[in-house]
Amino acid sequence: MEKRSFGRTDMRVSVLGFGGAEIGYDQASADTVKQLLNSALDAGLNVIDTAECYMNSEELIGQATEGRRKDFYLFTKCGHPDNSYETPNWSPDSLEMSIDRSLKRLRTDHLDLIQLHSCSEEVLRKGDAIATLQRARDAGKTRYIGYSGDNNAAIYAVKCGAFDSLQISVSIADQEAIDRVLPLARERQMGVIAKRPIANAAWKYSTKPDNWYHLPYWERLQELDYDFLKDGMSKAVEIALRFTLSVPGLHTAIVGTTNPARWRENADLLSSGPLPAEQFEAIRSRWKAVARPSWTGEI
Fold first, then answer.
1. DSSP at 276
2. What distance in Å separates the CA atoms of residue 260 and residue 290, rounded to the nearest whole number?
3. Which of 4, 33, 125, 233 could join 60 in a cystine, given CB atoms 3.0 to 4.6 angstroms apart?
């Protein structure tokens, strides 16, 4: 598994990382997660990313990886202590308690990266939330601090200079950041994580999905109408994932699953490396021709 230097940090991250949302929301069993993560670690994965609000994801990861902490980089996020995006809490006290809870749940004495989880530009500009993460870093609770989010808030997070990393939506159905945000992040030598790198595989739905998380990408893909999405699921996932990892300045893409075999399958799809330049540019050109102004980064 290819590894890339993660911006200005001392980490070299696997290009394919594990996203911990699905195991929490889909109520994966502890045995399944243990099998999944240990087989992925054995195969070369070294990035695990989760968040306090992904149900019991942190606990599952902590249980599954106990005894292997030196084998991977551990990232989590804070700001939604009640498992709901509708009730964030960016107060210093809440964030401090969240970080301490995450350390306990993940069964570790330190994180490699703690990220503010999709807070607004207004919250970032106030400075208290950023200062809380900086204190956690100074106290040795995390090695680095980052921002996870999109659009204008992401631009401010990059420009303010406080963060070591950025986690942002980049995919065949979400390309705004490629022009608006990632060049700025490259200039500042930030580590960049792609979330939702295969656009939730939203093309798998033959009819309009009810799921709010998949719907925006499904609608966009109907209009983008990429030819390669008609070549079967495996080939479509391969092209989509290789596209994301071909974006300049991007270091790792996190993909979630509850299937212990899936990570190895996805890793195998990357064996051919980045997309040929002509194929990459064809996808970019299609986006530029079709994308609407409202197609901004999906949180």
1. P
2. 37
3. 33
| Residue 273 backbone class (left: φ over 0; alpha: ψ -120 to 50; beta: rest) | left
CATH number at residue 125: 3.20.20.100
Quick check: is 223 in a domain?
no
- Residue 190 CA: distances (Å) to CA of 8, 171, 209: 6, 19, 35
253 in Cβ contact with 244 (< 8 Å)? yes
**How many secondary structure helices (H) and strands (E) does the chain include?**
13, 10
Which helix (H) or strand (E) is 191 found in, with range?
Answer: strand 191-195
pTM for the full model? 0.95
Looking at the 3D structure of the chain, how many domains does it have?
1
Closest alpha carbon to 113 in 72, 69, 73: 73
Supply φ then ψ for residue 145, to 5 degrees.
-125, 150
**Whether 62 contacts 105, CB under 8 Å:** yes
The residue type found at 103 is L
SS (H, E, C) 165-232: EEEEECECCECHHHHHCHHHHHHCCCEEEEECCCHHHHHHCCCCCCCCCCHHHHHHHHHHCCHHHHCC
Judge whether 217 lies within some domain.
no
pLDDT (tens digit, 0 to 9) for every residue of the chain, 299 residues total?
899 999 999 999 999 999 999 999 889 999 999 999 999 999 899 999 999 998 899 999 999 999 999 999 999 999 998 776 778 999 999 999 999 999 999 999 999 999 999 999 999 999 999 999 999 999 999 999 999 999 999 999 999 999 999 999 999 999 999 999 999 999 999 999 999 999 999 999 989 988 888 899 999 999 999 999 998 899 999 999 999 999 999 999 999 999 988 888 888 888 888 999 999 999 999 999 999 999 999 87
Residue 296 included in any domain: no
Full residue range of the structural domain in which residue 69 is found? 3-201+248-272
